[in-house]
Every structure is written in C-alpha cells, then in structure tokens.
C-alpha cells in the first residue's frame, strides 16, 4: 500500500518521509552535495550514483564478457550487444534500434 501521494505528479509512496524527499524534485531543492565536485542532488540515491564517477568502481558486471559498468542502465544497454534486441522502434517506418540515440538520429 502507498498511501502518501504527491500532489504535484501523483506518484505514491509507502512512507511520508519518502514523499517529502521526492517533493524536492519539484521544488528544485538539492540538499545532497558531492564532496568532490560540489554538484548537488535532490535525492541521496542520485548522489550515491554520481559519486561513482569519481572512482573506478564499476559494480555492474556483464555475465557474457569481461566488461563492467557504473550503472545498471549502462549494463542493460551493453547487453543488447550480445543479443539482437532492438527495443527502440520508429513509429513511421517500423525500423528498430538497439539504442535510443539510434532512433533519434534516424
């Protein structure tokens, strides 16, 4: 059950504190600052993800090859190199692409 609903976008949360943190996205408040470059973020999870750029840490490993990635989304995009999955389809001609940038360029 997610009883705490954002009045701005309608997204719901289990905890009031999570809704409060989420609200900072809409207000522009960015309380979480990177100690290395001082870039700031609305949510602590964004800062945790950002901090990986200051290290060589790449915790998301490809099971098919030796490559590893900083984010799960980078790994998901890379894994398409090992398959023929083409999830980005042109609505006009039906041609599909492995990356969203391929569709945009098309």
TrEMBL record:
Domain of life assignment: Eukaryota
Localisation: Nucleus
InterPro entries the record matches: Znf_C2H2_sf (IPR036236), Znf_C2H2_type (IPR013087)
Pfam families the record matches: zf-C2H2
Annotated region (Disordered), positions in chain: 73-106
GO molecular function, one term: zinc ion binding
SMART domains: ZnF_C2H2
Domain C2H2-type intervals: 4-31, 32-59, 60-87, 88-106
PROSITE patterns: ZINC_FINGER_C2H2_1 (PS00028), ZINC_FINGER_C2H2_2 (PS50157)
Listed Basic and acidic residues bias regions: 75-89
Protein name: ZNF22 protein
Species this protein is from: Pampusana beccarii
């Amino acid at each position: 059950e997610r009883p705490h609903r954002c009045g701005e976008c309608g997204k719901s949360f289990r905890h009031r504190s999570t809704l409060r943190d989420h609200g900072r996205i809409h207000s522009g408040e960015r309380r979480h600052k990177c100690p290395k470059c001082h870039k700031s973020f609305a949510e602590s999870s964004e800062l945790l993800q950002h901090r990986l750029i200051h290290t060589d840490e790449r915790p998301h490993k490809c099971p098919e090859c030796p490559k590893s990635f900083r984010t799960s989304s980078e790994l998901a995009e890379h894994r398409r190199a090992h398959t023929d999955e083409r999830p980005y389809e042109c609505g006009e001609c039906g041609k599909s692409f492995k990356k969203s940038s391929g569709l945009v360029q098309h």
